[in-house]
């Protein structure tokens, strides 16, 4: 069932795990993620970027998510990186139970102003609001930040922002980046910074750009013609450590894209007689489901759905 993220995030915060949040763009992704969540008994967040909305249409994405999550397992429908206030407001009216207002590219006071505006709209409908302080490097759909302009979250500024903005959860920048090429040198996250943020901010904390970029899937994609270059993701050990330090929502996009692309390219190359799209998409869907299940185990969310009451409360 589609529910609010707040009881899920609070349960995760209390019990030391993170709720997985997967970016979905089409039916295959939604089915893969929901099948994984059902088999792992994990709460899950289905999130759509502004790019996904442009691609598939908000109404279609909402309808597919609601249908796929019709059972008792707690699932959230979240708008990721909402930069267009009109689109954010539309999501509030179309069935999303959570939205992110991303004004992190603006000066502090403008970030606060836009976040407070969205929070005011959302409160009237009982919808949760995620915001971001600090900026995440890399490229993901409409989210682009040059490395030189990217900056990590200042703990004192995070505390002030959490107090002034009224948001329900806070995305922080501790060294991750969007896209498939996350690191050029040191791959480790700034866990000391995260620890300082956690001491000052009681809100649920969110980690963006956390895909691990599995080497076996990179090799599979490359084997069948994908030119992905030197893809380097976030280390599992760092994600585990970040969760121990208070991260209770982790976003994954690149890993699903990589899995689907590798599976689809293999199907096209190895089975030239297949012309049924459902058949061609199946290997990619299976790989995405495998990735989603791996993330649920890594984040510690497997089995946690059974600890949550039907309304999502612990």
Q: What radius of gyration results from the CA coordinates?
A: 18 Å
The number of strands is: 11
Listing every helix as H and every strand as E from the N terminus to the C terminus, the arrangement reads HEHEHHEHEHEEEHEEHEHHEHH
Q: Report the biggest beta sheet as strand number plus sense, adding barrel if it closes.
A: 8 strands, parallel, barrel
Shape, principal axes of CA atoms: globular
Strand order of the largest sheet: 1-2-3-4-5-8-10-11
Number of helices: 12
Which stretches are poorly predicted, pLDDT < 50 over at least 5 residues? 143-149, 180-184
What is the terminal-to-terminal distance?
15 Å
Structural class: alpha/beta
Strand content: 15-25%
Key structural traits:
314 residues, alpha/beta, 8-stranded parallel barrel, 3-stranded mixed beta sheet, 12 helices, 11 strands, globular
What can you see in these coordinates?
Helix content is 47%, strand content 16%. With 314 residues, the chain is α/β, with parallel strands linked by helices. An eight-stranded parallel beta barrel has the order 1-2-3-4-5-8-10-11, surrounded by ten helices. Strands 7-6-9 form a three-stranded mixed β-sheet, with no helix packed on it. A hairpin with a 2-residue loop joins strand 6 (137-140) and strand 7 (143-145). Helix 2 (27-40) packs across helix 12 (277-299), helix 5 (85-94) packs parallel to helix 6 (108-123) and helix 7 runs parallel beside helix 8. Mean pLDDT is 91; it is low at 143-149 and 180-184.
